[in-house]
Specification:
Strand content: 15-25%
Distance between the termini: 65 Å
CATH superfamily of the largest domain: DD-peptidase/beta-lactamase superfamily
Number of helices: 14
CATH class of the largest domain: Alpha Beta
Shape: globular
């Protein structure tokens, strides 16, 4: 369906009107959506993304922009009912579901986690006993930012992940400091299923998705014809999905995204842009029949304040953002330039295979959701580029072409990172030691065992049943392609290992790997 067909019904009923804020440009809504339609397609081609689905909500009315095809192999155009993975947009849905359970008297957000999960552990046992549901939903557990993400990327199971998470040090003040994590929202699944005695996806369907008319939205993996309780690597997504893609020698389709189902309540929801229009309207306007106002309002309460420190991030560019307050499942950020600022509620999602973004402004009565099926983390910033363009346009800011700036920044950052290591080869080229004594198994408490071996006179690294060929960089440093060790990485990632000796025992060989950097001890010691 083209742009004019999607909006014609609305404009037969209502006259053209300007966006209702003194800071906006004179564009009316049809001009705005048309401009965004063109911009989305231009940006999609720059980023080489197979499919992009967008919904803009203005004064309660949805306007859809649909670009591209389901995959590089399936040239079927996407439509409003094409499914996408949502990744961290899941967290807002989980937060609403927990508030609904509190409204029903089944839980309190002040309850400690151990009330429902008695064997829950952290490296600090006192904090493990007092950590509350509210601490988790407000992203203030106290571990470092994105703690545990490497476990997901390397293919850890849920059990393995929590065993490793229990070893990580508490770095911040629990209940106060903002420390974003993709792991801890996963605990909500266990709590929901314990108090409702139903699977997470069933409770969400009954209490949230069905009342909001989100019939094509679920926490459960969808493979073949039915719902599965766990993910199988042998299963492929249904045909109604925009298939996930990674950057690996070009744009490559992958069959599914296993890692999002390790922590289902954190990252596992899949949905359509049609359903996401209803979800965005719920976030913007509420619905007392779904969640009474006293509980709904808690979704927007700032829980902790964070000063954005990165000067180079294109997810939070310094020209638009300086601080954020985390609420439940979303951030509240001042957005704009100089004195021209608004409050923007926003959440991003990214995992290997796709990226997403949701944002809305109550001042403008304007919101947007963008779903795309390529990338991971900062591999693809297409959703951010489209979101920035929308709010810049209505605010009359025109100093940045985000589709080019984000793309060029991503490529330049990757090049600088790799050049930093590559240049050492030319600055002071050094041969490696005799590798024969280094061959064997190396063990680390968190990550388990890595094996080094020589095959065809080349050093190979093996981990969890997969192996990667290394290239000598300089001295005892060797590089490899992380995607060869795990589907959690793409060819834009850069892996390297360093060989040496154990700090406490110079007679024993040791190694480190940049992909395995969590905890206080990241050294792998050669086993005897």
């Amino acid at each position: 369906m083209n742009f004019l067909a999607r909006i014609i019904v609305f404009f037969l009923l209502l006259p053209f009107f300007a966006l209702a804020n003194t800071k906006t440009s004179s564009k009316n809504i049809d001009q705005l959506v048309k401009e965004m339609d063109t911009y989305t397609e231009e940006a999609r081609k720059i980023w080489n993304v197979p499919a992009v689905a967008v919904v803009i909500i203005y004064k309660g009315q949805p306007y859809f922009i649909l670009k591209g095809t389901k995959s590089v192999s399936d040239k079927t155009p996407i439509d409003e009912k094409t499914r996408f993975h949502l990744f961290s947009l899941t967290k807002g849905m989980t937060a609403a579901l927990m508030l609904k359970l509190e409204e029903k008297g089944l839980i309190s957000l002040d309850d400690p986690i151990i009330k429902y999960i008695p064997d829950f552990k952290l490296s600090n046992s006192d904090i493990a006993k007092t950590l509350t549901i509210k601490d988790v939903l407000s992203q203030s557990v106290g571990l470092k930012q994105f703690a545990g993400d490497s476990f997901l990327k390397l293919g850890f199971s849920e059990k393995e992940t929590w065993e490793a998470m229990a070893e990580l040090p508490i770095k911040k003040i629990t209940g106060k400091d903002y420390t974003y994590s993709n792991q801890f929202h996963g605990l909500m699944k266990q709590i929901i299923e314990k108090v409702t005695k139903k699977p997470l996806e069933v409770t969400a369907k009954e209490l949230l998705f069905d009342p909001l008319k989100m019939s094509n939205t679920t926490y459960a993996p969808l493979y073949g014809r039915g719902f599965l309780s766990s993910c199988s690597k042998t299963k492929k997504l249904q045909d109604d999905f925009a298939k996930p893609h990674v950057i690996y020698d070009g744009v490559k389709e992958i069959p599914n995204i296993d890692q999002v189902f390790v922590q289902q309540a954190s990252m596992a929801v899949s949905s359509t842009i049609e359903d996401m229009a209803n979800w965005l309207k719920f976030l913007m306007y509420g619905n007392p029949e779904v969640l009474k106002n006293d509980w709904f309002n808690q979704l927007r309460v700032p829980r902790n304040h964070y000063l954005l420190q990165s000067q180079n991030s294109m997810i939070f560019p310094k020209s638009r953002h300086s601080t954020l307050d985390y609420c439940f499942g979303a951030m509240l950020l001042p957005y704009g330039k100089g004195e021209n600022k608004i409050n923007l509620y926003r959440q991003n999602g990214a995992r290997q295979g796709g990226t997403t973004c949701l944002a809305y402004s109550l001042e403008y009565d304007l919101g947007i959701v963008i779903l795309c099926n390529l990338g991971a983390n900062q591999d693809c910033l297409l959703p951010e580029a489209i979101m920035f363009k929308l709010f810049d346009t209505v605010m009359g800011i025109n100093d940045t072409d985000w589709k080019h700036v984000t793309f060029e920044h991503t490529n330049e950052t990757l090049k600088k990172y790799r050049d930093f290591f590559e240049q050492s080869r030319f600055a002071a080229p050094t041969p490696h030691e005799d590798l024969t004594p280094y061959i064997g198994n190396y063990c680390n408490r968190l990550y388990g065992t890595i094996t080094l071996k020589i095959k065809d006179n080349v050093l190979w690294v093996s981990y969890r049943g997969k192996e990667a060929k290394t290239t000598h960089l300089n001295g005892n440093r060797f590089t490899f392609v992380p995607a060869q060790l795990s589907s959690g990485y793409s060819s834009t990632d850069y892996g390297f290992i360093d060989l040496g000796y154990a700090p406490s025992d110079r007679a024993r060989h040791a190694m480190t790997c940049n992909l395995m950097n969590e905890g206080d001890d990241t050294i792998f010691i050669q086993t005897k």
